[in-house]
Amino acid sequence: MDQKNNRTGRQSNNSSFLVQGSILAIASIVSRIIGLLYRSPLTAILGDLGNDYYSTAFEIYSLLLLISSMSLPLAVSKMVSARVSQGRMRDAYRVFKAALGFAVCSGLAAALVVFFFADYFAAFLKTPFCVFALRVLAPTLFIVAILGVIRGFFQGLGTMMPSAVSQIVEQIINAIVSVVAAYYLFRYGAKIGAVLGDAEEYSAAFGAAGGTLGTGAGALAALLFVLFVFMVYKRVLKRKLRRDRGSSRESYRTILHVLIWTVVPVLLSTTLYNLSAIVDQALFKNVANLQGYTADQIHTFWGVFGGKYRVLVNVPISIASAVVSASVPAITASFASKDMDGVHKKTGNAIHYSMVVAFPCAVGLGVLASPVMQLLFNDSTPLAAHMLQVGVISVVFYSLSTLSNGILQGINRMKVPVINAAISLALQAGLLVALMYLADLNIFAVIWANTFFALLMCLLNGYGINRYLGFKQEVKKTFLIPALSAGIMGVLVYVVYMVLQMILNINAISTILSIFVGACAYFVLMLVLKGLNEEDLLSFPGGRKLISLGRKMRLL
């Protein structure tokens, strides 16, 4: 009976962390959909030139965000989860307070660096007019640092709801403020440019600054929301602290020491992992300039790449990031309890979940590349669609590499992703330059180099997981069946879209209906080919309804 109860408890825990991951994944999907919806009018306002300034400012902001605070939520959730699993609630709360102090210092330092050194960053990336957007983004670094610690604390406690809801609140405010501010500042910049003799540059630069203003407003709204949730939760927290009779009382000095040594490897791996975007941009713009491309061509290439292509491929990748946020505390708790069966189970489930989502998204974006670009960005040029078709396979590789980074961090192998990212980054940079000089692939060299980087990270991280966990991912159900189902779905989606276009000739309706048909077809194929079972579906959003539907169709 005890063995049965233990087994049931383990299954419940395994399902629970994926349910929490599903909550965060739903929030990520909703947030990305909102992001896609507002990026369409924002892109129309800014144009390719303004999108170049906007994307460049965000690359620099994202790098400083990673260095200052982006690793904090993961580190805090990992440390809090380990202490909560051992019944040490007071120590978990001390971790939170220490991390909050650390975030204030690091966030403030990063904000000051971006604000006062914006000119140098902009000049390095050959995009001087992005300086206005950069300075507007600077205070956001301070806000997000504090926001990340509070989100990480709740994730460490095993609840993703505050993070999920705050993400949606953040994106709604971001969308409204970004579009409105971009519109008015674009017009204001045009007036200034008319006086200074460069209306196009100044209107694009001020418009981009308006777009980034929404980022800060959204982050502030999210921070106010999680602070409200924390104040509501504080009564429960005090009760838990009173019940804690554990003997361990870690000093803040010890906690900060552990926090820093937890943050630094995560920081290095995530920074190197995401530094590829800055390296890509610096190499591409400098090499393209040497190759004789005009400034307008370079701005157009990067505007489409950063403002359209990357926005779309990041939607499914964000789901993998959500699974990482849920799986790292869960894997850490099992690892701290020396429950290796639980670690293996959670690792396998997380990878399977991620691949079930990544494959159809990659195929769908590839098949409907041109229709989606037209629908979201009113862009019917071959360049935008071709970029998406070439780069969609990176969705699978980035989803898997992002998740495998988190798994290695969850089992305290912090240095492994750092080394892997450094190797991948160096080889990626070499490949990018070679493709530009030898094959003259211009922006497509960046896409191929990105894909190579993500693939190499998958292989190296996979080797590390196998080495340190003795874990080998099941292949058929995780990779082969989702890939086959997605491939068949892709053919069906293409046929449905072409038929609907012949009948209706309305791209928006044809695209949306094709996506709906594709999602239904993929679900049926995964059940028919045994890529999903009832236990898997329980961890998905609306899992019970999906099981009921599968039974009615006699597929379960």
What would you say this structure looks like, in words?
The longest helix has 69 residues, at 2-70. The model is unreliable at 1-15 (pLDDT under 50). The protein has two domains: 12-473, no CATH class; 475-556, no CATH class. It has helices at 2-70, 72-85, 89-116, 118-124, 131-156, 161-196, 199-243, 252-290, 295-336, 340-367, 369-377, 382-391, 393-410, 415-438, 443-469, 476-503, 507-528, 534-538, 543-552. It is globular, with a radius of gyration of 23 Å. By secondary structure, the chain is mostly helical.
Task: Reconstruct the topology from this structure.
Elements: H1 2-70, H2 72-85, H3 89-116, H4 118-124, H5 131-156, H6 161-196, H7 199-243, H8 252-290, H9 295-336, H10 340-367, H11 369-377, H12 382-391, H13 393-410, H14 415-438, H15 443-469, H16 476-503, H17 507-528, H18 534-538, H19 543-552
Helix pairs in contact: 1-3, 1-5, 1-6, 1-7, 1-8, 1-9, 1-10, 2-3, 2-5, 2-8, 2-9, 3-5, 3-8, 4-5, 5-7, 6-7, 8-14, 8-15, 9-10, 9-12, 9-13, 10-13, 10-16, 11-12, 13-15, 14-15, 16-17
How many structural domains does the protein architecture include? 2
Query: Which of globular, elongated, flat, extended, rod-shaped describes the shape?
Result: globular
Count of alpha and pi helical runs: 19
What is the arithmetic mean of pLDDT?
Answer: 84
Low-pLDDT stretches are 1-15
Beta-strand content bin: under 5%
Distance between the termini: 29 Å
Order of secondary-structure elements? HHHHHHHHHHHHHHHHHHH
The class by helix and strand makeup works out as mainly alpha
Helix fraction bin: over 70%
Overall strand count: 0
Biggest sheet record: none
Task: Indicate the radius of gyration in whole angstroms.
Answer: 23 Å
